[in-house]
């Protein structure tokens, strides 16, 4: 039998060894580099879900509406890219989305100085996809149908991981010259900015410009702020870019139809 002091020293050595091993594993875990696909996955998850601009609309009702953002996974591409379905509606009429898009999320090409590439696409038959995320899975278009219904490319936003100390996790924009756009008010191109914050909060700012660089649609004071805090509208049964259109307040005699502001 060993002496009590010997057993005590042995236990002490075991405890120290376990602490050292645990510390080494923790350091390894904390210093593990985030892969390109990890970045894409984080952005994809942050974009997904039901969010509202309720707080912002309450603070500044003259410039912002209470809009519902709803997005969810729709398909996976062969290369691993995630296809999300996205729709936006006024919170009072969530079943009548005025904007519908597919978003494709994937890592930026290695030669580019960004982390995540977020592209938006039109939908071949948008009517067929209304309230996609609110439906049971067997009542939605299936992944193979989704891939076949991805139509024209609209915009691409290049996101970078935010520097330490900033509120955001990722932020980025379209290239400075934007993408062709002739939706309304004489616009010839549009730009988009997007920021992913903690708690799946999304800030998005879309603007349209004419040939002379004058802004002709979109809010001017700053991005829309979408938060997952419970909104006044019906909650989604599901927990999918892209940046929604930002409309200035509509005067009497105007209405939103599709993604456009039209004069009666």
UniProtKB/TrEMBL annotation:
<dbReference type="GO" id="GO:0016829">
    <property type="term" value="F:lyase activity"/>
</dbReference>
<dbReference type="InterPro" id="IPR010404">
    <property type="entry name" value="CpcT/CpeT"/>
</dbReference>
<dbReference type="Pfam" id="PF06206">
    <property type="entry name" value="CpeT"/>
</dbReference>
<protein>
    <recommendedName>
        <fullName>Chromophore lyase CRL, chloroplastic</fullName>
    </recommendedName>
</protein>
<keyword id="KW-0456">Lyase</keyword>
<dbReference type="InterPro" id="IPR038672">
    <property type="entry name" value="CpcT/CpeT_sf"/>
</dbReference>
<comment type="similarity">
    <text>Belongs to the CpcT/CpeT biliprotein lyase family.</text>
</comment>
């Amino acid at each position: 039998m060993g002496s009590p002091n010997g057993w005590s020293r042995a236990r002490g050595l075991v405890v120290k060894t376990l602490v050292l091993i645990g510390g080494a594993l923790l350091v390894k875990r904390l210093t593990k580099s985030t892969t390109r696909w990890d970045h894409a996955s984080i952005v994809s998850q942050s974009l997904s879900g039901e969010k509202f601009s309720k707080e912002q609309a309450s603070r500044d009702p003259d410039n912002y509406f209470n809009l519902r953002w709803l997005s969810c996974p729709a398909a996976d591409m062969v290369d691993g890219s995630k296809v999300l379905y996205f729709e936006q509606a006024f919170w009072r009429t969530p079943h009548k989305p005025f904007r519908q898009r597919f978003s494709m999320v994937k890592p930026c090409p290695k030669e580019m100085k960004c982390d995540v590439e977020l592209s938006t696409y039109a939908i071949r038959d948008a009517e067929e996809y209304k309230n996609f995320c609110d439906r049971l899975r067997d009542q939605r278009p299936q992944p193979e149908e989704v891939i076949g219904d991805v139509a024209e490319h609209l915009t691409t936003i290049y996101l970078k991981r935010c520097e330490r100390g900033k509120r955001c996790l990722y932020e980025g924009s379209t290239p400075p010259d934007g993408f062709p756009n002739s939706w309304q008010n004489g616009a010839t191109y549009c730009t988009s900015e997007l920021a992913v914050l903690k708690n799946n909060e999304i800030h998005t700012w879309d603007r349209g410009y004419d040939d002379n660089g004058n802004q002709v649609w979109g809010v001017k004071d700053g991005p829309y702020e979408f938060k997952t805090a419970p909104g006044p509208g019906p909650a989604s049964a599901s927990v999918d870019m892209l940046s929604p259109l930002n409309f200035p307040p509509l005067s009497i005699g105007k209405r939103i139809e599709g993604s456009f502001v039209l004069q009666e």
